[in-house]
Amino acid sequence: MTNHALLVIDIQNDYFPGGRHSLVNTEKALSHSLLEIDRALKKNETVIIIQHIHTVGGPFFRLGSLGAANHPHIEAVAAKKGTTIYLTKSQRNSFIDTDLANILEKRHIQSLTICGMKTDWCVTETSLAALKNGYQVKVIESACTSLSEDIHQQAIQNLSDHGVQIC
Fold it and tell me: DSSP string of 6-33?
């Protein structure tokens, strides 16, 4: 076990074409995230798949809906082998009302690589919270996306300005 973990945030069906809140460049972000998952599992690193769930009346990621499910490719790669943990959340920040902090502490994790969707919401909020909590944080730019390329790039710049390593 290493002291590094990969967080895969909200790569869920509703963000893909035909979903309730589709983003741009989802296939690119998905393919790069899959590469990151494979890389982490080969190194025996902890992979944490984080899934956002809204109440039944939420705008998207509705509890029990197909849109709220993790993308099937994420499930397939993560299930192959390794140390994969699944978490659900209801906030943009993956540390709020989840066991994420406890999991990282118990595994002596000191650094995080983050990929996922949406760059300007959940990726940003989780990355900044991780920094505040003393973790080294790296975001894989090509494995993230948002509503537009401009919004994605603004979020990446914001993360960089706050000390997140962008790769």
Answer: EEEE--BGGGSTTSTT--SSHHHHHHHH
Whichever domain contains 66, its CATH number is: 3.40.50.850
- Cα(29)–Cα(140) distance, rounded to whole angstroms? 9
Q: Which domain holds residue 69?
A: 4-166
pLDDT at 77: 82
Task: Please give the Cα distance from 47 to 36 (Å, whole number).
Answer: 9
DSSP per-residue codes, 75-134: HHHHTSSSEEEEEEESSSSTTTTSSHHHHHHHTT--EEEEEEE-IIIIIHHHHHHHHHTT
Give how many domains the chain has, as a whole number: 1
Q: Is the pTM of this model over 0.70?
A: yes
